């Protein structure tokens, strides 16, 4: 498939800080890619480089087959034809919603504005003024405005972060549909794993200016490339294990490996250079199940985080009190309470990583 956005060896430094480091990435025509990473990892800088608000120190950016940034060549933002949806909608307060969307368009502007408002679920609201809309509706206008000139690439910078949680879920899916219907190629920057996993075709996980892993949401969650990605995307336990015959034993009892293989932590990961190598098992909380007394390993319930559709149980495992997590997903009733003794076991195969004891300690739960 042809790539609408191609980044090659992109680097941006701010004094001693390398915000984006030799980053290469392709986004295919019509694809929605989420760039997911913690605060300060360089996500916004990456977006600003593509939009043209920052000049790259090294590397190349191609948009729709055109080179917009290369060593010594920096195309101005307005010439790149990249649509941007910022964190705050920043609409023109004195212009109607339709005029905001049509701003900068030439022929057929009115019709196109109406089409785009329809696309984001605001059909018929074109004559309103921005202050007559809710925050969520204003953000929809910002999306319609970015889509209106039919840019080859749309960039969305944490566009839902200022909204209530209840609004966010609905808006995410509506925006996703609007982008798909418009056939847009889009890059969404977010630190919110739910947002990245639920909206994107592919997720690029970023840390310290580099991409640690890129793949489908299911790949990122089920086959994280390293312990850091495993911990960053979703709740996870990384439990040291020791071999016992053909089985592996952990604080959660016996665990079965996916393939018997241990995934290597990337060699660039300096933390792994010293110390002994201890296999770590990645156990997701939904893999931990309650067992009848006498089965599984004993544990004590420390805390219950109730979410309605599920509940996260924080456990204390074994004599050492190793922390553990369990997710109950079978209904709104929680059959355990803090202080209760339970028995648990791990259901299904786990993924293994080569890690150090220190690393396992670093991933201990709160
Ligand atoms: N204009 C600037 N001048 C100096 N340093 C900067 C500038 N912009 C970003 N940085 C630094 O570059 C690094 C990456 O910042 P960036 O804003 O891209 O991260 P981010 O992942 O978007 O974070 P957040 O989610 O908090 O916005 C940080 O260390 C930041 O302090």
UniProtKB/TrEMBL annotation:
Matching PANTHER family: SPERMIDINE/PUTRESCINE IMPORT ATP-BINDING PROTEIN POTA, SPERMIDINE_PUTRESCINE IMPORT ATP-BINDING PROTEIN POTA
Record-listed E.C. numbers: 7.6.2.9
Domain ABC transporter per the UniProt entry, residue ranges: 5-233
Keyword Membrane: yes
Enzymatic class: translocase
One function term, GO molecular function aspect: ABC-type ferric iron transporter activity
Protein biosynthesis found in the keyword field: no
PROSITE patterns: ABC_TRANSPORTER_1 (PS00211), ABC_TRANSPORTER_2 (PS50893)
GO (cellular component) term, any one: ATP-binding cassette (ABC) transporter complex
Domain of life of the source: Bacteria
Keywords: ATP-binding, Cell membrane, Ion transport, Iron, Iron transport, Membrane, Nucleotide-binding, Transport
Name of the protein in question: ABC-type quaternary amine transporter
């Amino acid at each position: 498939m042809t790539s609408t956005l191609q980044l090659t060896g992109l680097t941006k430094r701010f004094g001693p800080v390398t915000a984006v480091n030799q980053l290469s990435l392709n986004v295919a025509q019509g694809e929605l890619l989420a760039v997911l990473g913690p605060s300060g990892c360089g996500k916004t800088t990456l977006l600003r480089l593509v939009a043209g608000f920052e000049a790259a120190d090294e590397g190349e950016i191609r948009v729709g087959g055109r080179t917009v940034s290369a060593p010594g060549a920096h195309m101005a933002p307005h010439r790149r034809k990249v649509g941007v949806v910022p964190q705050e909608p920043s609409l023109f307060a004195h212009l109607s919603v339709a005029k905001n969307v049509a701003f900068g368009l030439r022929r057929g502007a009115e019709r196109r504005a109406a089409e785009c408002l329809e696309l984001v679920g605001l059909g018929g609201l074109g004559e309103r003024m921005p202050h007559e809309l809710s925050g969520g509706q204003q953000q929809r206008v910002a999306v319609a405005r970015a889509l209106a000139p039919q840019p080859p690439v749309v960039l969305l910078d944490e566009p839902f972060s200022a909204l209530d949680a209840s609004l966010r879920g609905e808006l995410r899916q509506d925006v996703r549909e609007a982008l798909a219907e418009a056939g847009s190629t889009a890059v969404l920057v977010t630190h919110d794993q739910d947002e990245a996993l639920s909206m994107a075709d592919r997720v690029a996980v970023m840390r310290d200016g580099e991409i640690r892993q890129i793949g489908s949401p299911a790949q990122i969650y089920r086959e994280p490339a390293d312990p850091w990605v495993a911990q960053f995307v979703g709740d996870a336990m990384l439990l040291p294990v020791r071999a016992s015959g053909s089985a592996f034993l952990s604080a959660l009892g016996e665990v079965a490996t996916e393939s018997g293989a241990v995934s290597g932590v990337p060699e660039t990961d300096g933390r792994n250079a010293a110390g002994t190598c201890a296999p770590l098992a990645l156990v997701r909380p939904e893999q931990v199940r309650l067992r009848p007394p006498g089965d599984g390993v004993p544990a004590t319930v420390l805390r219950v985080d109730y979410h309605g559709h599920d509940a996260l149980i924080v456990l204390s495992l074994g004599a050492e009190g190793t922390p553990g997590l369990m997710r109950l997903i079978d209904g709104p009733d929680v059959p355990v309470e803090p202080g209760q003794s339970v028995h648990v076991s791990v259901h299904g195969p786990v993924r293994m990583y080569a890690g150090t004891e220190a690393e396992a300690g670093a991933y201990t739960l709160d």
